[in-house]
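wait is this the right file?? whatever heres the structure
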């Protein structure tokens, strides 16, 4: 039995030393020390030994077991380290390889212009107000002095949510005028940028969703002169001191008198060309003195206060500034286009 133990010891130690990986090592552990392992089966025969032999063999068996366990532990450590080394080698990071370039976005041309517009107006003492895009007809039309049968209310032009035409996607930012006047007392100086919606087919100059910046000033003694001065300041700050404006009489239900404002075409300086479609001028906004009915509807005393309002198309401002000929380019989000600004 002693001989068997010694054989087990030497064969196991050399097999452990040669084990190629952790799996093989575990198989060896089972083969020697497992329930059916060779050392275990020797121990099971201990009962047949004499009383003098038993402690000697027992001690030897324990030494063999300890030697095997120690060898397995040592080999496990050695193999684990090798494994780790291999892994680190395989996963080595070469910090000198150039990284993948990250595409950094930039501001959309409309955001550039909007930021400038907000800057220009806050510089003149305006604050920025926001209003809902889902609006009541009451605010989009009625309180803005549109008659019950005004053509702008028609279903062909407006996105309605309800059969009774009471809830809609706002067709203009002008309802924000009402929201502001209902909660704020004069003096009022606000602009309100935002999305508006109309049932227009998409083409080079139309989109069912576009942006306006509304402006409203209500104070004592406000005149058309203030309106002209303010809008001329906007145009000159946006397009340079050379920029020329033209105020044309127009009609809006909620302003009286009303006007439309054109900027002179930069391409032909008013002579007429492809860019301005032969007009020499390009329309950018509607404006006027706030209609007394609108002011009174919001509880503002028209014997004390007057005001002006305007609504400017942000797409138009942007297209003029960067000479963009097709509005669709502003919405397609093509990086080849957007990265030019
Ligand atoms: N809301 C008008 C439009 O969409 C523009 C406008 C605003 C006109 C304010 C006068 C005053 O055409």
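ok assuming it is, sequence goes like this
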């Amino acid at each position: 039995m002693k001989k068997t133990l010694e054989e087990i010891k030497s064969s196991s130690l050399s097999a452990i030393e040669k084990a190629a990986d952790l799996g093989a090592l575990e198989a060896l552990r089972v083969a020697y020390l497992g329930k059916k392992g060779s050392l275990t089966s020797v121990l099971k025969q201990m009962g047949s030994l004499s009383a003098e032999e038993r402690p000697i063999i027992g001690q030897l068996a324990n030494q063999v077991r300890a030697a095997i366990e120690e060898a397995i532990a040592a080999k496990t450590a050695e193999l684990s380290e090798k494994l780790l080394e291999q892994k680190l080698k395989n996963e080595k990071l070469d910090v000198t390889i150039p990284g993948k370039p990250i595409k950094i976005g930039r501001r959309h041309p409309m955001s550039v212009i909007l930021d400038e517009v907000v800057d220009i107006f806050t510089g003149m003492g305006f604050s920025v107000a926001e209003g809902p895009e889902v609006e009541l007809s009451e605010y989009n039309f009625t309180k803005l002095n549109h008659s019950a049968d005004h053509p702008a209310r028609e279903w062909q032009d407006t996105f309605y949510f309800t059969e009774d035409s009471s809830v809609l996607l706002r067709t203009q930012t002008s309802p924000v005028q009402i929201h502001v006047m209902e909660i704020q007392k004069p003096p009022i100086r606000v602009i309100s940028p935002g999305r508006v919606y109309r049932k227009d087919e998409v083409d080079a100059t139309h989109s069912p969703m576009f942006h306006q910046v509304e402006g409203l000033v209500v104070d004592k003694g406000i005149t058309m002169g203030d309106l002209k001065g303010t809008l001329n300041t906007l145009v000159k700050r946006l397009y340079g001191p050379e920029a020329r404006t033209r105020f044309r009489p127009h009609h809006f239900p909620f302003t009286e008198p009303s006007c439309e404002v054109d900027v002179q075409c930069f391409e032909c300086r008013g002579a007429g060309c492809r860019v301005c479609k032969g007009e020499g001028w390009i329309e950018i906004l509607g404006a006027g003195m706030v209609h007394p009915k609108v002011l009174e509807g919001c509880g503002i005393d028209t014997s004390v206060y007057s005001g002006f309002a305007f609504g400017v198309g942000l797409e138009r401002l942007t297209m003029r500034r960067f000479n963009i000929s097709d509005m669709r380019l502003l919405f397609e989000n093509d990086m080849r286009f957007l990265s030019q600004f």
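The chain has two domains: 2-90, 109-338. so i think its the right one actually
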